[in-house]
Amino acid sequence: MLQEKYFFLKHFFYLAIHKLTMDFSSKLLENAVNEMSQFPGIGKRTALRLVLHLLKQPKEHTQNLSQSLQLMRDEIIFCKNCHNISDKELCEICSNQNRSEQIICVVEDIRDVMAIENTSQFRGQYHVLGGKISPMDGIGPGELNITSLVEKVKSGKVKELIFALSSTMEGDTTNFFIFRQIEQYEIITTTIARGISVGDELEYADEVTLGRSIVNRIPFEASLKNS
Ligand SMILES: [Zn+2]
Fold first, then answer.
1. Which domains does the chain have, with CATH numbers?
2. How far is the CA of 180 from the centre of ligand 1 (A)?
3. SS3 of 206, please?
4. How far apart are CA 175 and CA 170, in angstroms?
5. What is the tens place of the pLDDT at every residue in 191-202?
6. 44 Cα to the center of ligand 1, angstroms
7. pLDDT, tens digit, for every residue of 51-80?
8. CA gap 98, 123 in Å, rounded
9. Three-class secondary structure of residue 222 per DSSP
């Protein structure tokens, strides 16, 4: 009986929500909500709330928002050296003469660069892979910026590679894959000594812990023995 009631309630709410997302009085509103709900974590109800919010604001707010999004999409490029998101061919970090090109920190994306930059503990350059090897999501080594990293190591300019991917299975797999590609070259490989638990993402680690873990980095091979 209770199960029946639950079943009914569930369907009632489903229909109510479904109705909300379907019965728009305006096609223009519906289109805007559909576009907005494509963001991760934004359902139709939240999208509707955001769109209604925009409608209450002066028109310029929406104009500024759409213009800045369009401009970002059109103009943003990837740094030709480190693959970080940049406004210029060479990003601010790669074009800074005070940053050493001998130490390269390997990260997944721009959020990791920002997190490490916030610690002010790293004066080398980055190499942004653009993701992690993840067969489940169809991401193989070929989809990532690994070849250009190996080329950099081959050139002989790099003295140390710091692996700073999150300690997930995908992160470990990616580190190991790169390590195997470069272990024949004379280069030091290290990994950041994490005070954060396994699986934590870099961007969520606090600045002090992350800063300390960069300073106290450990040889990569030692990290393999521990795991
Ligand atoms: Zn760069």
1. 2-75 (1.10.8.420), 85-226 (3.40.1360.10)
2. 24
3. coil
4. 9
5. 987 655 445 566
6. 38
7. 999 999 999 999 999 999 999 999 999 999
8. 8
9. helix
